[in-house]
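Record type: monomer structure entry
Structure origin: computed from sequence
Chain ID: A
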Amino acid sequence: MGICQTTQIKKDDNLQNLQAPILYTKKSPQLGMHNAYIENLPFIDEFSHEQEQWKVRRAQHRYNNDIIYNGQWMGNKRNGIGRLDWGDGSYYEGNWKNDQIDGNGRFVSKNFVVEGQWQTNKLNGYVIYKIDDIYKYEGYWQEDCKQGIGKEQYDDGSHYIGNFNQNVKSGIGIYIWNDGTKYEGMFQMDLLNGQGLLKWSNGSYYQGEFLNNYLHGQGCFQWNDGRKYEGNYLYDYKNGYGKYFWENDQKYEGFWKNDKWNGHGILTKNNQVIEGEWNQGKLETNK
């Protein structure tokens, strides 16, 4: 289970001239689909008309390779509402300012659609970004980066709602897997980092500290059968001091190493108290 293929969280304790437009996506190791920007956008500074330079007008201009702009101009620059069609079927329609995409607009290509607010050819403001049925993002962008509150949906049914910073999940957020497992808490660099609550679909949950998608630090793990652990974790394993409770009032309190009793500990079982030194889950010396 995980946000991406690299996640480490376990579900149990064993737990040329003018060319066609290119919409680039700047990828991260965790997800792979984040930032978007257009390249090969034609400019026409050399194009001029005999009409008044600052009179708003509507005209069509054909570039090389069947690229056509149809819309409003001011002087020799695209200003106002216009549509730019590339020869491969891709197009942008919306607002222009000083020969750049600026304002509300829609960019459509074979596999993706970007609709929202732009500023000087960059996404700025509220944007909907969709790649076929694989991926969808709705939320805020700044300088071509996801920034602020947004929602990501993935083709497997999982989704994330929360904060982004420079294209990655960062800050408070909620991630829900397609099996119903849910995480609420802090993110950093697209990973579970900081305080959070992770609830499995079977009713078990962990509340505490995370580090790079691992249970790491102080936390409490509650199993759906009544067992509970309170203590320290180290990369998903119980390590250091912790308390383990069974449903039948049996209890171990002491030190752990890699999920096993290791070091000084006290086991309470059947009204008997066994205190001593443990090694890999076995009692070596007792008092």
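Annotation 1: The radius of gyration is 28 Å.
Annotation 2: DSSP finds no helices and 23 strands in the chain.
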